[in-house]
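Input (structure):
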């Protein structure tokens, strides 16, 4: 089972969790539009799209008016994605490797709920540097560790501390999410640490469901 399949298994269709996910991702899309100000001619790169096709996945492709301007990247063959979004260009990429695009190939690069899954701090820095290399403006979003319910396990509060998250995940039989190779819990501090390695000016803020420091998501933006 892929990371995407594991994640969406925690969000059953039609339930409260799915409605909250949709509300969060709709806000993320609005913040993407208001901060990146894409024009109809802008070329947009979306790195880390999902082959799981449902109302919560691939919010950019579902909502953006100019799908023909999107180049989407994923680790798999993307058969489901290409069938669902035939106007988008799909490119299969390798994990933790240089993106197969020249410098400045895109006006905007974006990525939602991917940075926390790349396996290490060094891989996170590489991921962000690659987005900044291939695009002039960048908008990255991740789950906020301090949202009261952990996104991947639906465990409340225990994820605020590593030791309690390990115990709660073991009890819930979800210990795979305590392995950094699968999930790095993200904070504003960690995003600023990553941003400090990039020469472009950066902004870190809250997005998704808005509860101040307890908001569901964070963004890292370069423009």
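Output (sequence):
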């Amino acid at each position: 089972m892929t990371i995407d399949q594991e994640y969406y298994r925690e969000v059953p269709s039609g339930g409260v969790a799915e409605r909250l996910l949709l509300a969060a991702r709709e806000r993320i899309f609005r913040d993407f539009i208001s901060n990146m100000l894409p024009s109809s001619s802008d070329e947009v790169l979306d790195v880390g799209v999902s082959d799981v096709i449902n109302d919560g996945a691939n919010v950019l492709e579902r909502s953006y008016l100019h799908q023909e301007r999107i180049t989407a990247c994923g680790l798999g063959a993307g058969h489901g994605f290409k069938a669902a979004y035939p106007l988008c260009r799909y490119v299969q990429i390798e994990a933790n490797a240089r993106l197969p695009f020249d410098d400045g190939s895109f006006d905007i690069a974006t990525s939602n709920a991917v940075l926390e899954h790349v396996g290490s701090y060094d891989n996170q820095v590489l991921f962000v540097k690659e987005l900044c290399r291939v695009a002039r403006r960048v908008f990255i979003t991740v789950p906020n560790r301090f949202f009261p319910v952990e996104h991947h396990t639906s465990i409340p509060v225990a994820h605020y501390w590593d030791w309690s998250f390990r115990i709660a995940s073991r009890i819930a039989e979800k210990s795979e999410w305590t392995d950094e190779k699968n999930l790095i819990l993200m904070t504003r501090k960690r995003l600023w640490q990553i941003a400090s390695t990039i020469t472009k000016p950066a902004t870190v803020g809250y997005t998704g469901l808005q509860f101040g420091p307890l908001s569901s998501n964070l963004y890292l933006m370069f423009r």
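Notes: The CA atoms of residues 191 and 200 lie 14 Å apart. The longest strand covers residues 135-143.
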